[in-house]
Design goal:
With 335 residues, the chain is α+β, with helices and mostly antiparallel strands. It has twelve helices and ten strands. It is elongated, with a radius of gyration of 27 Å.
Length: 335
């Protein structure tokens, strides 16, 4: 859609004002607050043209204009001023990410929380789907005479454990033998290539004395793999939606919260149509779900070895501070 320079400046001014005030914007306000160099009558004529083009809407006959979803799309793609994070915002993100954590999930959780704190919107983050990560080490720890703790560490810094019960007293040297055997066979292999059934028969030949412990140990290993393969969803600032006048309507707010309560829906939204390295902006009617027609969803992916493994995003009203959200997500992903 082609817009001349005059219409572009007026549209940008209206959207900037509406994002900040949540009030319909009139021609007199644009003429007074922005250095456009046009009379309010000229601006009013241009606003009428922008409305005919579907970029503005007039909620009431005597009111000013508000942006349509199409108007926001032009704004995001062509008009908005890119924004740098403030020193305090950068420091907040650095503080959240500076620790060399053993648990990658904890790092993603912190990233989600700081994005919500900076943007003042609801944030979402999906932990990695890491079945393509490889085993770094496997440990077997005797907790009680009949209980073992299996601990798996991957090359991506993910740590998972599983407590299993065995039917016999376990000798320490037997644990060492089976742990060495499993590390020798599995270290460096991606989790999706584990063949635990064949390992069972090999291990039972090696450990004839305590072979009853093999099956529960492999069951614990399988449980750890399932934990790693299943993504976890973190949600922060869900109730911040009530801070925006658009969602003072309880029915609309309830619909929004219902969407947030369904993990499968959110995971699908987070990965829908996104490519590696993208920050994707979906505005209002661009969202497939009716419950999100009054919302914008901005998502970005994070990768390992150029493969998308997770996603982080922000959801809020279409009247969103797009430059700030995009700058925050870009900085998080880069770091």
């Amino acid at each position: 859609m082609l817009l001349d320079d005059r219409k572009r400046r007026i549209l940008k001014a209206i959207i900037d004002d509406y994002i900040n005030t949540a009030e319909p914007v009139g021609s007199r306000s644009v003429a007074r607050k922005h250095e456009i160099g046009l009379s309010s009558a000229t601006i009013r004529n241009e606003m009428a043209d922008l409305e005919e083009m579907g970029l503005l809407e007039q909620p009431h006959t005597s009111a000013g204009r508000v942006p349509s979803d199409k108007g926001y799309r032009i704004y995001v793609d062509q008009l908005m001023t890119t924004r740098e994070l403030s020193v305090n915002e950068v420091e907040s993100i650095k503080d959240a990410l500076k620790f060399k954590l053993n648990e990658l999930e904890q790092l993603i959780k912190q990233a989600s929380a700081v994005v919500s704190d900076i943007t003042k919107y609801t944030s979402m983050a999906i932990t990695p789907q890491m079945n393509k990560s490889s085993l770094k080490s496997l440990q077997l720890i005797l907790v009680e005479f009949d209980k073992l703790l299996i601990v798996i560490v991957t090359n991506a810094g993910i740590v998972k454990n599983s407590l299993v019960k065995v039917s016999v007293n376990v000798a320490t040297d037997s644990l060492l033998i089976i742990a060495n055997f499993l590390n020798d066979k599995l270290s460096g292999l991606t989790l999706e290539k584990f063949d635990l059934e064949n390992l069972r028969y090999e291990a039972e030949k090696i450990l004839e004395k305590d072979k009853e412990i093999i099956l529960p140990i492999l069951g614990g290993v399988r449980d750890c793999i399932n934990q790693i393969s299943n993504s976890e969803l973190f949600l922060d600032g869900a109730t911040k939606i009530f801070n925006f006048p658009e969602f003072h309507d309880l029915i609309r707010a309830r619909q929004f919260l219902n969407v947030l309560s369904t993990k499968e829906i959110l995971c699908a939204l987070m990965f829908n149509g996104i490519r590696n390295g993208d920050v994707k902006v979906r505005i209002g009617m661009e969202n497939e779900m009716d419950e999100l027609k009054d919302c914008s969803l901005i998502t970005a992916t994070y990768s390992m070895d150029y493969e998308i493994i997770g996603s982080i995003g922000v959801i809020g009203p279409t009247r969103m501070q797009y430059p700030k959200v995009i700058a925050s997500l870009n900085y998080i992903i880069k770091n």
